[in-house]
From TrEMBL:
This is Uncharacterized protein. It comes from the Bacteria. The chain crosses the membrane at residues 6-25. The keyword Transmembrane helix applies. The keyword Transmembrane helix applies. Residues 238-257 have a biased composition (Polar residues). Residues 75-94, 132-152, 229-257 are annotated as: Disordered.
Length: 386
């Protein structure tokens, strides 16, 4: 028993020592890996500063090109001591120096644009137009043809002209692109409005059907009114011009005609209003009930017109019976002589007058009905607008 315990403690101590050794070795391994990585970075850092290509990084590559251009500019300023003549040497030095300076300015501008675009990429073209400004061409002092020919063959001036043309093309391109975006936005808005209006147009089919029914009733009433007017015209042809009964009949017919025309105008106005309005579902039911009320009122008006037509026929027969007198003798005489000569005619005229007064009352009642209908249409129009 004692031997087992001793062995157990020995094994436990060995396991603890083994764990400590593994921990220490792992820590040393990590330290060695860190040192190796640092050495690798130190060895690769000088090579990365070379930036032989653009894949090493755009900004470092631009810095490398700028340094090379500055070195070339310094070399061009120090050189030029050969066997050539002084004039040719100065001309070559000037052209080389201008080209190197222009290249250096372009590289510096490109570097600034890249740095700014990293912070504000949406303003890239603003930075480009601000920094890439081509230098103005030098003004010649004299009109030397050899100098003009040299300038025409100068690649720097040709490059400047090409840059100007490219800038004008760029401005036109972006203006057209902006207009295209505006047109696309307006088209999108119109599409959304059309999608909103399409369901309203589908719901207005029932209203159009009701309006067609109303138009049919209006045409029927207009036909009956035309028939009544034709009968009144025939009665006017047979009666004498100084007949007061006929004048009152014509006045009542004209008043009724005006009232019908007014109602037709109201119906046409209602037709346009209903076409322009986009009523909701719950208001469409209320509009249908109002149209039914209008249909009932139109039927009442039709019945009234039929009654008036019958009364006009009765009056026509009465007037024809009065016109059976001598054509040279007027139907109505002025003063008391007419009353003394023909008392029967006076009684008939009074009866006709009373009947016409009754018709006037009926016409007034019709006018009141139409006024109430107009008020209902105005109320409906206000509710639809609200």
């Amino acid at each position: 028993m004692d031997v087992v315990e001793v062995l157990f403690f020995v094994i436990l101590e060995l396991a603890v020592l083994l764990g400590i050794a593994v921990f220490v070795l792992d820590r040393k391994r990590r330290q060695l890996q860190a040192q190796v990585q640092e050495l690798t970075r130190e060895e690769s850092a000088p090579e990365s500063d070379v930036f032989e290509s653009i894949t090493s990084g755009y900004l470092p590559y631009l810095e490398k090109l700028i340094l090379e251009s500055r070195a070339q500019l310094e070399a061009a300023g120090d050189g030029g001591t050969g066997t050539e003549t002084e004039t040719e040497t100065e001309t070559a030095e000037d052209e080389t120096t201008l080209a190197i300076r222009y290249r250096l300015s372009l590289l510096e501008s490109e570097k600034k644009v890249t740095e700014r675009c990293n912070d504000y990429p949406e303003k890239r073209w603003e930075h480009v137009t601000e920094l890439f400004t081509p230098p103005s061409a030098p003004v010649p002092e004299d009109d030397d043809p050899e100098l003009e020919e040299a300038e025409s063959n100068n690649p720097l001036l040709k490059a400047q002209e090409q840059i100007k043309r490219l800038e004008s093309f760029r401005d036109k391109f972006f203006s057209m692109k902006k207009q295209l975006r505006e047109l696309e936005a307006s088209r999108q808005k119109l599409t959304e409005q059309l999608e909103i209006l399409m369901p309203e147009a589908e719901r207005s089919e029932e209203l159009r059907a009701l309006l067609d029914t109303m138009n049919g009733q209006r045409d029927r009433l207009q036909a009956e009114l035309d028939q009544l007017e034709s009968q009144s015209d025939e009665l006017a042809k047979t009666a004498t011009q100084n007949t007061p009964v006929q004048e009152q009949e014509n006045e009542s017919s004209s008043a009724l005609t005006k009232q019908i025309d007014k109602q037709n105008r109201k119906i046409s106005e209602l037709h346009h209003l209903v076409d322009d309005l986009n009523l909701e579902a719950e208001k469409a039911e209320e509009l249908q009930s109002r149209f039914k009320q209008f249909e009932l009122a139109s039927r009442d008006m039709n019945m009234c017109i039929q009654v008036l037509e019958e009364e006009n026929q009765f009056l026509q027969e009465q007037i024809k019976s009065l016109l059976e007198l001598d054509e040279n003798e007027p139907v109505y005489h002025s003063g008391a002589s007419a009353d003394a000569e023909n008392p029967d005619q006076k009684a008939q005229l009074e009866a006709l007058q009373s009947e016409l007064e009754g018709k006037d009352q009926q016409i007034k009642s019709l006018e009141e009905k139409y006024a109430s209908m107009e008020q209902e249409y105005l109320t409906l129009y206000e509710e639809a607008n609200s």
